[in-house]
Amino acid sequence: MTPKTVRRVNWIGGITTVLTVVIAVLWAFPLYWGIVSSLKPENEVVRPFIELWPDTLTFRHYWFALTETQIGAWYLNSIVTSLGVTVVTVTTSLFAGYALSQLRFPGRTILWWLILASFMVPTQVLIINHFVLMADMGLLNSWAGIILPQLIHPVIIIVYKQFFDQVPKDFREAAAMDNASEWNVLFRIYIPMNWGVTTALSIVTFIWAWNAFLWPFLAVTKTEMMTITVGITQVFDAFGVYYARQLSAAVLAGFPVALAYLLFQRKVTQAITLSAGIKG
Amino acid sequence: MLRNTKKEWLIAYILVAPFVAIYGLIFVYPTVDMFILSFQDAPLIGTGDFVGTENYERLPRDRRFNTAFWNTAYFVALTVIPGTLVALAISLGVTRLSGRLQSLVLALFFLPYILPVSVVFRIWDWTMNFQFGIAMHLLDALGLERVPVFQTSTFFMPAVAFVTIWWTCGFSVLLFLAGLRAIPQEIYEAASLDNTSRWRTFRHLTWPLLWPITALVLTIQLILQLKIFDQVYLFSQGGRPNDNLVMVYYIFQRAFVNNQGGRAAAIAVVLFIMVIIIAALNFQLMRLSERNK
Q1: From CA A128, how far away is CA A218, in angstroms rounded?
Q2: Helix-strand-coil percent breakdown of chain A, rounded to 5?
Q3: Mean pLDDT, consecutive 10-residue segments, chain B of 293 residues?
Q4: What is residue A125's DSSP assignment?
Q5: How far is A238 from chain B, CA to nearest CA, in Å?
Q6: Which of A194, A211, B12, B91 could, after both became Cys, cross-link A103 (CB 3.0–4.6 A)?
Q7: How far apart are CA B293 and CA A90, in angstroms?
Q8: Residue A52, SS3 per DSSP
Q9: CB–CB of A121 and B275 under 8 A?
Q10: Which helix (H) or strand (E) holds B128?
Q11: Nearest CA to CA, how far is B154 from chain A (Å)?
């Protein structure tokens, strides 16, 4: 390699790096702008120029959202339903994934094909029938009614099966020598060996459930039963045409998932790539 | 090792039972019910008479159905390939970085994906606000006329597509990054020894090696965007919902606004079949291209 090419390469490389960083900052700028606007008094928010930091920093809008609206109840609804979806989805998928991976039983192949097929089916088309079903069961406007139709995540079973398939057979055989029961094998070997996957999958399932819009939006008509994702866009009189108030409510709604991502960045990215069928 | 077959079956059934029960109740039953409902003139709640294929025969002449169908196609065209290309470009930039800078930059690109749609809606509704949005300052600065973006039918879909790409791009970026990491570094070293130009390296090495991931991202995006509802619905509030209809939005309108469960179910079946056909075709195409290698 001649010195000339080295310089050329570094030059282009340097520009690309700087450009990437600049675009990344611009990319996230609307998020910053939303947050900073929610910290300005209403009269500053509507000023016709871009002020990157408020003249008067105020938490008034947050105080308003937390005390004058039903955001507290929405938070509770979101937490309960998202946890419900996560716990039920992850445990049922774990058990089913284990059975599909490690045990032989009649109907196994059919079940596996059904799961693979449902991977493609859009659950959005089922909204009418989910609504009718939940109405028949008397579950509209309830936590159970919000949770139930969100429990189809075939991808989680698929990921679990792949992971259980990779556990070396030696463990199983050694356990069989010791006369360990199937339950012992599952709870003492397979689950502990895959804690990492379980946490990663739980975190993303929680985020998905927290962010769900369409079904919680249909399942709930009473404002006090709404999840926060639905509530902040559906209850107009609660915030009025006050941009800063609306934005503060949006920041409150996004905060838990953003925090979860920032705390568990690696786990989240791992789970996302896994959910697309790529080994992270 | 002698297997106790009966016992193994029993344990297996106990393990899969909770999943199968939920799956049957929430997935299999509603799917069957959707097909049955689509042949009835039923309201949303309550029973109706069997009307044969009437609900389907109405669709080709239904103005709103046509709007919904073509808008969905338009939206797919606006998001799938452009979104994939944007994600590819971003990941090529991010993959050059290393250490803390890389995770910081990646986090900036990825953060929008993690947020609920209503937060994304609030932020962009504010950014593109006709009176006070900073996007309008930008238009002013460029000497262009301000546009009430989400109230016009011309700009609505492109703007929602733009917001959608901004929102969901991080997901595809992650997949591309995983793909780029899987390419052995030695290949690039060999190429740089041969003094191959950047573009040729990309064209003849990175692009073909990355193609399986690109195909995967395109497939996921395609199926995802066919099912679009949330953003279109939210940005349509106070705008022109009837011009902005997409398939799922129309199902929602027929069922929950017009109280026509049967007719809504027919639209749902059409979308259902569309997605299945496209997914199956895609799968076949990917298999064929694998075989040709």
Answers
A1: 9
A2: 80, 0, 20
A3: 74 94 94 94 88 92 94 96 96 91 93 95 89 81 82 89 95 93 83 78 87 90 92 88 92 94 95 90 78 61
A4: G
A5: 15
A6: B12
A7: 38
A8: coil
A9: yes
A10: none
A11: 23
Torsion sign (Cα): A142, A144, A149, A152: positive
Task: Choose the closest CB to A122 out of B90, B129, B227.
Answer: B227
Dist CA A172 CA A178 (whole Å)? 10
Give yes or no for a contact between B35 and B267, defined as CB atoms under 8 angstroms apart.
no
% of chain A surpassing 70 pLDDT: 94
Q: Are B249 and B229 in contact (CB under 8 A)?
A: yes
Which of B7, B19, B230 lies closest to A213 in CB terms?
B230
- Domain residues of chain B, as ranges? 71-244
Proportion of chain B in helix, strand, coil states, percent, rounded to 5 = 80, 0, 20
Residue A87 is encoded by which pair of tokens? Answer: 């716990």
CB B148 within 8 A of CB B65: no
Q: How distant is the Cα of A168 from the closest Cα of chain B, in angstroms?
A: 16
**What are the structure tokens assigned to A64, written together?**
């308003």
Residue B167 near residue B115, CB atoms below 8 Å = yes
Question: Is A164 within 8 Å of A194 (Cβ atoms)?
Answer: yes
Query: Which residues are bridge partners to B40 per DSSP?
Result: B50
Measured CA to CA, the distance from residue B18 to residue B24 in angstroms comes to: 10
Please, are residues A203 and A75 in contact by the beta-carbon 8 Å criterion?
Answer: no
Determine the 3-state secondary structure of A277 from DSSP.
coil
Question: Is A183 in Cβ contact with B90 (below 8 Å)?
Answer: no
Kindly report, residue by residue over A123-135, the tens digit of the pLDDT: 899 999 999 999 9
Q: Show the DSSP H helices in B182-256 as ranges.
A: 185-193, 198-201, 207-226, 230-236, 247-252
Q: How far is CA B229 from CA A14, B7, B74, in A?
A: 41, 47, 14
Rounded to whole angstroms, how far apart are CA atoms A224 and A215?
16
Count the alpha carbons within 13 Å of B238 in the hemisphere toward its beta carbon. 11
Q: Which helix (H) or strand (E) holds B8?
A: helix B5-23
Q: Which two tokens stand for residue B158?
A: 């492109």
Q: Residue A118's closest chain B neighbor by CA?
A: B27
| Arch. (CATH architecture) of B71-244 | Orthogonal Bundle (1.10)
Phi, psi of B63, deg, nearest 5 = -60, -45
Nearest residue in chain A measured CA to CA from B127: A30
